[in-house]
Amino acid sequence: MSAEPDGPEDRLRRFATIWGRAVFPVTSTSSTRPEFEKQLVPLARRLSEALRARAFDPDTGRAVGAALVEAHCTDPEALSRTLDCVDAYLVLYCGGDGDGEDLRARSARLQHAMAAGYAQALRERTLAEQEAIAQAALRAQGVVAQALHATEARFRAVFEGAAIGIGIADLKGNVLQVNAALLRMFGLSEQSLRGRSVLEWTHPDDAPQTWALYDELVRGEREHYHIEKAFYRPDGTVLWTNLTVSLLRDADGEPQYQLALMEDTTERRLLNLRLRYEATHDALTGLPNRTFFFERLEKALNAGEGQRFGLCYLDLDGFKTVNDSLGHAAGDRLLVEVADRLQSCATAPGEMVARLGGDEFVALTTGPDTRHTVDELATRIMNALLAPIGVDGRDLTVRGSIGVVEGPAGERSPAEVLRSADITMYRAKSAGGNRFELADPEADARAITRHGLTTALPAALERGEFFIEYQPLVHLGDGSVRGAEALVRWLHPQHGVLSPDRFIPLAEHTGLIVPLGRWVLEQSVRQARAWQERRGGADVAGPLRINVNLSPCQLAHPGLVQDTVDILERTGVEPDALCLEVTESALIGADDDLLKPLRRLSEMGVDIALDDFGTGYSNLANLRRLPVSVLKLDRSFTQSMQQFPADPVDLKIVEGIVSLAHSLDLAVTVEGVETGAQAEQLRILGCDTAQGWYYARPGPPERLHELALVDATG
């Protein structure tokens, strides 16, 4: 039998043991290693709890970093070894069953917090030591001049025992004394340092004010200064320090010596650079990430007058197929190769490439004339993607769509530029992909408006911003009003009244068409009921029929039949007073499953109309299998009839359609009737009903009731 796995406490102690073994050799503690490891157990427990906590708390990491300083882990190597240990083993021993990627990300944030806490605590300790040394130095000023043994011994104890580097020089810059910590920092012997001049220790990265501050101090014009300064070691490596230089005066207040206190920050600086790199670069491709790119873009947009920018926003076409068919590992290898190719395209000054995430990349170019360079950059990117990419023994063809934005600096924010590029990229993708498109402000405005309408649709339905207008259906034989088509409108707070073509496609795309269509159906059927009640006992041919449009999405919805039945039952309207209009294109190639709900509704007595007939290129023989009772002839067939004489070809086509429809026992309704001559010609051809501006424009329900009463009373 296999042994039971270690419990959480055992794994925690094992982590603390590994941590202690790594750090103990570089500590200044008087404890034994087991005692030191025991000190690390509560710190390990705090890290473990922070790793698995519901909400991340950076204070825990900072507290653990500060605790290391309190445990005398003041050597910079102690922090480096601690972070390496946490990075390698914390998730392994303390992660439990959590999500690996999430735990890794949280572990990295804990490391960052530990480094910050460690640096803060070490700085505070250093400042305390500096204060003690400064006090000792002040007390020792008289000793230097008078050689008092007791004070000299006290100063020497602080001087030699300090963890930071200390040096004393005269006002000419000649080094007089240095402590052991400073010798270790520079890797030099005391003999090689004594007698050297501090003026020799210049470095290319010195801040501009460094030596001006020094001159002011030795002239007695300032008492101290604090800067970050780099020094060259004998082996050519760079030592970074927090340097504090103070002026020591004699008993008469005259400047006599300068005292330098140095804290080695090399490891901390390297750690910060590493953390900065990880925070600003993509882990997979090594390219700058979204954060770094936005920093560069903002800088480019604030470059000043006369400067311009150009941006290429690339999205790979069909990348999801690669992930789905070959797996995410293959997809990652593809992205790495694409990143390498893109990097080779942006090598000129002012150009960069970044990965925003997924399969989205951006390339930026800046300078006084980016009109041509951005086009050239986009062309280079497209050419770089031409050659297939080998992944797992397969040659994959890579295609991409690019949105290009170019313009002067200072006019737009980074978010606006990226939004325009994103919109333009999708325009290129909609045009077939494998191409780049230039941004068009008008197209951007339309896309932004569409997006705004899309996001406003759900709330608009809840707020009651939709209303319905009705256009009468007139019998061509006697001119009576037989019904009306319900046409939904949107009373938008900013854009006013919007017609269906502005928002129905958006509702289809988002799925909101189902609740919106259900609302339109119920309101229209209720209106039909109201018309019936208001007509009272008028001697008319029958109830006014209401025509309601069905979208393809509604047609495929499983609740269509039940919703319709429920609405008819609640309102008390007979099924034959309702006609549902379905576009011909929605029924092209429809199978029995799609036609089944229409057949059930037709069997109940609901009329089904085939809308826009003649635009969908359907096979006329299919009419026999469709459960329709009405053909609505598209207006394109009858436009020529608005003038006399009508096109004889159009007359023959309409005559043939009417004859075919009647032979199949289908009624024919004509849309878009605008003149009396057109209406008369359609009557002669045998069409049954018509609608259009000749009779009435869509309007409120009261107007249709008035028209119906006029017809009923003659």
Tell me what you see in this structure:
It is a single chain. This protein has about 725 residues and is an alpha/beta fold. An eight-stranded mixed barrel has the order 13-14-16-17-18-19-20-21, surrounded by four helices. It has a five-stranded antiparallel β-sheet with strand order 2-1-5-4-3, sandwiched between helices. A five-stranded mixed β-sheet has the order 7-8-6-11-12, sandwiched between helices. A hairpin with a 2-residue loop joins strand 7 and strand 8. Helix 1 (about 10-25) packs across helix 2 (about 35-50), helix 2 (about 35-50) runs antiparallel to helix 3 (about 60-70) and helix 16 (about 440-465) crosses helix 17 (about 500-510). It starts with 7 loop residues before the first helix and ends with a helix.
What labels describe this entry?
PAS_fold, 51% helix, 25 helices, alpha/beta, eight-stranded mixed beta barrel, Rev_trsase/Diguanyl_cyclase, five-stranded antiparallel beta sheet, EAL domain-containing protein, 20% strand, PAS-assoc_C, 714 residues, 21 strands, single chain
Poorly predicted tracts of residues: 1-5
Strand content: 15-25%
Largest sheet: 8 strands, mixed, barrel
Q: Which strand order spans the largest sheet, edge to edge or round the barrel? A: 13-14-16-17-18-19-20-21
End-to-end separation? 100 Å
What overall form do the CA principal axes indicate?
elongated
Domain PAC: 225-277
Domain EAL: 450-712
Pfam family, one: PAS
Protein name: EAL domain-containing protein
